[in-house]
Amino acid sequence: MMELITLKEYTKEGVVYEKLEDNKVRCLACYHKCLIFENKSGICRVRYNEGGKLFVPRNYVATIANDPIEKKPFFHVLPSSFALSYGMLGCNFHCSYCQNWDISQFLKDKQVRGQFIPITKYDIVSLAKKYGSKVIVSTYNEPLITVEWSYEVFELAKSNGFLTGFVSNGYSTINSLKYIRPVCDLYKVDLKTFNDKSYRRLGATLKGVLESIINIKSLGFHLEIVTLVIPGYNDSNEELANIAKFLYSVDRDIPWHVTAFHPDYKMLDTPHTPAQTLIRAYNIGKEMGLNYVYTGNIPGLEYEHTYCPNCNNIVIKRYGFKVLEINMNKNKCNKCGYIIPGIF
């Protein structure tokens, strides 16, 4: 079990912040832009002010695993490759259905014990080499709150030939995005709802996430979007259509993953998402003009394949996280030559 005083041993002064008068600081890592007084922490609870300086986490992970890239999910990045995936402690949201609550709600929920593993950036890159990973990803909890640590890891990873990425709630600032962009290739955003009131219950705003998605795309990250479709929460035709319309307005080629909810954390009484609901969401996305829509968490559906928008050829055939066929010549459909966006 990790005490807060122990956590402080694994910190350094941050970069993505500004110093203010009276030893106050303004954190700029996420859209909250917390004003933090001396000896206080931000909403995430892991970025804190000591002596008028902002200290941030580094040199540990709460969990680490070598996952299929499809699990992130990135469907348009090196299909069938593996991503060394690490997560830390804390979050800037408080989602009642979080599937990683045992690390994300550290210092917010007394159930969370806060266990961790000391590790260096060299250890992480060595593990990626050992396990044959092609990508190194910050995931499981919110990577923005440890953006400086990811910069260290990713800078080393890039110099060793790896792709790098964030799996994020997307509540970013232009400051953090510009800071991490030189060493980060991929960005997956959870667009959880298109309802501002629902976002405020999670501790955020819809506006902040939508602005972030636009900025992420404009800065040239490879971007994919996930919406966890929850019965009675965000599964109406209107809300799903609004999400699809927004994504279309940014870029119709953005992959949109509509994934199935399973009961977790404080939403144990909410039912699983029926397959039919995901198919409905898929059809809405396609009707709104999106080229790449995928169902997730229910393996075996035809809607998890990548289809060529030009000739409807299956260019990547999947079963869950497993790639069964790749019918492409590099980044082109092998039937008609249409270019499929992504990193292949």
User: Helical proportion?
Assistant: 10-25%
Could you say which structural class the secondary elements and strand pairing correspond to?
alpha/beta
Give the full name of the CATH homologous superfamily of the largest domain. Answer: Aldolase class I
The count of strands amounts to 21
Reading off the top of the CATH hierarchy, the class of the largest domain is best stated as Alpha Beta
- List the helices and strands in order: HEEEEEEEEEHEHEHEHEHHEHEHEEEEEE
C-alpha geometry: globular
Strand order of the largest sheet: 8-9-11-12-13-14-15-16
Task: Provide the residue-averaged pLDDT.
Answer: 94
CATH names the topology of the largest domain as TIM Barrel
**What oligomeric state do the depicted chains represent?**
single chain
Unreliable residue stretches? 1-5
Task: State the major sheet.
Answer: 8 strands, mixed
The name of the CATH architecture of the largest domain is Alpha-Beta Barrel
Radius of gyration (CA) equals: 20 Å
Terminal Cα separation, in Å? 42 Å
Number of helices: 9
Number of domains: 2
| Strand proportion | 15-25%
Detailed description of the structure:
- The chain has 344 residues and is of the alpha/beta class.
- It has helices at 4-7, 101-104, 121-130, 147-159, 174-180, 196-202, 206-218, 237-250, 275-287; strands at 11-13, 17-19, 25-27, 35-36, 48-50, 53-57, 60-61, 63-68, 82-87, 117-118, 135-138, 163-168, 186-190, 222-229, 256-260, 293-296, 306-307, 314-319, 322-326, 328-329, 332-333.
- The chain has an eight-stranded mixed β-sheet.
- Helix 8 packs across helix 9 (275-287).
- It is globular.
- Residues 1-5 have low confidence and may be disordered.
